[in-house]
Design goal:
8 strands, 9% helix, single chain
């Protein structure tokens, strides 16, 4: 997550090797990244830990697609997808089959999306797709989980 010599580091490696997830990446930040890549261009560097590929780094594009699935009972479902590319042309795929459901976050621990699929070669993907969490989280709350929290605060009451 250190993109280049001229870019300020935006990632501090946690001592316990666990990145705490604390917030959501806003839609505005997804479209207007606050990071610079190794060429000094704005980008949003992201990280995920998938079952198939382990920990990988990627570059979120800020490009969103709407997908509508139609069903035989004359209903439909609308989904939003966020495109993520490999970190660079040497790093390999960001995801592969088996990584679905992985959380994608930035180096600050802000959740960006839920990995849903990819496109490209059969054994790995050139493009990974995720449902953006700014779009997904309100739907989770509206559909049966109104008390859901991204980073809940737990009241600690010691046992007596």
């Amino acid at each position: 997550m250190y993109p280049g010599a001229n870019a300020a580091p935006n990632f501090e490696y946690p001592d316990d090797r666990l990145l705490p997830l604390r917030d959501l990446i806003s839609e505005d930040l997804m479209h207007n990244p606050d990071m610079l890549d190794h060429n000094g261009e704005s980008c949003l560097l992201v990280i995920k830990n998938g079952h198939a590929t382990g920990v990988t780094l990627g570059r979120a594009t800020g490009i969103f697609s709407y997908i509508r699935k139609y069903f035989s009972n004359n209903t439909h479902q609308t989904l939003m997808e966020w495109a993520i590319l490999p970190y660079d042309n040497k790093s390999g795929a960001f995801s592969a089959p088996g990584d679905s459901g992985s959380i994608i976050a930035d180096g600050h621990g802000r959740i960006g999306g839920l990995l849903t699929g990819g496109a490209g070669k059969m054994e790995s993907f050139d493009i990974t797709y995720a449902t953006p969490f700014f779009w997904l989280f309100p739907r989770i709350k509206q559909n049966g989980f109104p008390n859901a929290h991204v980073y809940p605060v737990i009241d600690y009451v010691p046992w007596h």
